[in-house]
């Protein structure tokens, strides 16, 4: 496991942008597939995006594809989620997660390391 800490959440108007950051306290370059999940009030945790160990492959939920971009900087042990054209339905607590055995990158149970979450609120 690796410790993960998210930052960058906040309040933004619909159509605006935010960039979330996830700092890992350890190397993630060759070990972890990294992902972002979110959970809105009254809803189950939802897959948002994931990125392969080298950053060459990315995965996105249909609901965010074309608006969000996941990236990683292995030299800095950082993962990012750039969110553009935000919608009120994007409002949720966003969690960074790492999987060293990524049997299913879109499934939360595949991840063994989780950040505490950062709140993203999008107003109409």
Rounded mean pLDDT is 95
Instruction: Sketch the topology as an H/E string, one letter per element.
Output: EEEEEEEEEEE
Q: Main beta sheet: strand number and arrangement? A: 7 strands, mixed
Shape: globular
The helix fraction, in percent, is under 10%
| Rg, nearest Å | 13 Å
Total strands: the figure is 11
Distance between the termini: 38 Å
- How much of the sequence lies in strands comes to over 45%
Judged by helices, strands and strand pairing, the structural class is mainly beta
Low-confidence segments, ≥5 residues, pLDDT <50?
A: none
Please work out how many helical segments DSSP would assign: 0
Summarize the structure in words.
The protein has no helices and eleven strands. It is mostly beta strands. Strands 2, 4, 5, 6, 9, 10 and 11 form a seven-stranded mixed β-sheet that branches. The radius of gyration is 13 Å and the shape is globular. The mean pLDDT is 95.
Primary descriptors:
124 residues, mainly beta
């Amino acid at each position: 496991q690796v410790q993960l800490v998210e930052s960058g959440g906040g309040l933004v108007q619909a159509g605006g942008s935010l960039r979330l950051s996830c700092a890992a306290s350890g190397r993630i370059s060759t070990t972890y597939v990294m992902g972002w999940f979110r959970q809105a009030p009254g809803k189950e945790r939802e897959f948002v995006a994931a990125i392969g160990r080298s950053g060459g492959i990315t995965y996105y939920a249909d609901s965010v594809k074309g608006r969000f971009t996941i990236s990683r900087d292995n030299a800095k042990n950082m993962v990012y989620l750039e969110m553009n054209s935000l919608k009120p339905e994007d409002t949720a607590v966003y969690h960074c997660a790492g999987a060293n055995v990524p049997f299913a990158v879109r499934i939360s149970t595949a991840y063994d390391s989780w950040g505490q979450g950062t709140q993203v609120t999008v107003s109409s």
